[in-house]
Amino acid sequence: MLTATNIQKYYGQLWVLKGVDLQIKQGEIASIVGPSGSGKSTLLHILGTLDKPDKGDVVVGNQRLNFLSEKQMAAFRNRHVGFVFQFHHLLPEFTALENVCIPGWMAGRRKKEVEENAVELLRMLGLGDRIDNKPNALSGGEQQRVAVARALINKPAIIFADEPTGNLDSANARELHQLFFTLRQQFNQTFLIVTHNEELAQMSDRILHMKDGKIV
Ligand SMILES: Nc1ncnc2c1ncn2[C@@H]1O[C@H](COP(=O)(O)OP(=O)(O)OP(=O)(O)O)[C@@H](O)[C@H]1O
């Protein structure tokens, strides 16, 4: 599903990623753990095409990402990749339903089909009776689930999550973890999750330990 070879990244003089090699299989749920500053988020952003490496190769499916222009990269991201972040950046002036629909509309899909998909996803996530609420009328856990639905609207093959449960209480965190596994079972989606949550890491198929810009 995803192969990264010799990924290196510098921020000015700072050598943040020092040659990361990584393979993720389709349908796998893998966690990346490691000390603060070891390069986890940087790696996730590069694998998710939000940032470019200074050296190395990322291949997703049969697409080698290095050779894509910015525009092609954005199109690729919109079609194939989903992101879930700790701070989910829902748009406050839009309803839960609209927040979920926006990436689908941006991908040029039919408005009605996107809405039907979004309602289905929100129902699946236990938010069927919250679709018209704006973010400030949703709990933290509900907002996070809306963000997950938004990440899934274009049926991405791979979902990158950066501390997805960082701001949730343990009950909501557990629910979101379960959800990843349910989705994997239903759609065979692939998840790569950066987390400090020991419980989530232990549940995943594989734990990758990062230290000093390398997987050790
Ligand atoms: N845009 C940037 N410009 C300069 N330095 C950066 C930038 N982004 C990250 N860094 C530095 O790169 C290093 C790795 O950061 P990164 O966010 O990848 O670590 P992390 O392992 O995800 O940490 P945490 O667990 O605290 O989120 C850190 O030293 C950080 O200060």
TrEMBL record:
Keywords: ATP-binding, Cell membrane, Lipoprotein, Membrane, Nucleotide-binding, Translocase, Transport. SMART domains: AAA. One of its GO terms (molecular function) is ATP binding. Belongs to the ABC transporter superfamily. Signal peptide: none annotated. This is Lipoprotein ABC transporter ATP-binding protein. InterPro entries: AAA+_ATPase, ABC_transporter-like_ATP-bd, ABC_transporter-like_CS, MacB-like_ATP-bd, P-loop_NTPase. The lineage of its organism: Bacteria, Pseudomonadati, Bacteroidota, Chitinophagia, Chitinophagales. Pfam families: ABC_tran. The keyword Transport applies. PANTHER family: ABC TRANSPORTER ATP-BINDING PROTEIN MG467-RELATED (PTHR42798:SF2), LIPOPROTEIN-RELEASING SYSTEM ATP-BINDING PROTEIN LOLD (PTHR42798). Residues 2-216 form the ABC transporter domain. It comes from the Bacteria. GO terms for biological process: lipoprotein localization to outer membrane; protein localization to outer membrane.
